[in-house]
Amino acid sequence: MKHCTLTIIALAVLLLSCNQNSSKNTVTTHKQPVDTAGKQVRQVDLTEEQTERVKTIIALFKENNIDKIANRINYPLHREYPIPPIRDKETFKQRFNEVFDTTLIDKIANSKLEQWSAVGWQGVMLDNGLVWLGYSDAVITAVNYQSEIEKN
Asked: Could you tell me where the DSSP H helices lie in 24-147?
């Protein structure tokens, strides 16, 4: 019994010491994004392929090419409740200005590659999740922005 108690104490000390930061002087300058379950996600630099996809999206928004942007949406594009999701290209074209107002268009069109980051299997995001692109393609999977039209 005495050996079991000593073993448990040794394991507890070992586990607690493994959970310590390597530096006590570490300062966090920005918050890490979190997934839908509230867990922190790890951001990494973009691969060459992802960089090209992001450049394509930026170019489409610089051109304000609604038809081509509509082809780069993963439908349905969910909106904040009670706003109904956008289920197809035609509806997207009709509601484009509701989702992508001039503020968001400018934000995407003028974004720098440093503002985009890959988040494992979850995809590529702009500015900690404002806009999400699919992992394996350059389709917009989520827009976590609400325009004034949608707010009203």
From this structure: 48-63, 66-70, 89-99, 102-109
Q: What is the mean predicted confidence (pLDDT) over 96-114?
A: 93
Using a 10 angstrom Cβ sphere, with 0-12 exposed, 13-18 middle and 19 or more buried, the burial of residue 118 is: buried
Q: For residue 84, what are the contacts with CB-CB under 8 A and spacing of at least 6? A: none
**Residue carrying structure tokens 């009670």:** 82
The structure's pTM equals 0.67
Two tokens, residue 125: 């995001």
Residue of higher predicted confidence among 75 and 150: 75
Confidence of residue 20 (pLDDT cuts 50, 70, 90): very low
126's enclosing H/E stretch is strand 124-126
Which residues 6+ apart lie within 8 Å of 74 measured at CB? 134, 139, 140, 141
Other CB atoms within a 10 A radius of the CB of residue 120 amount to: 11
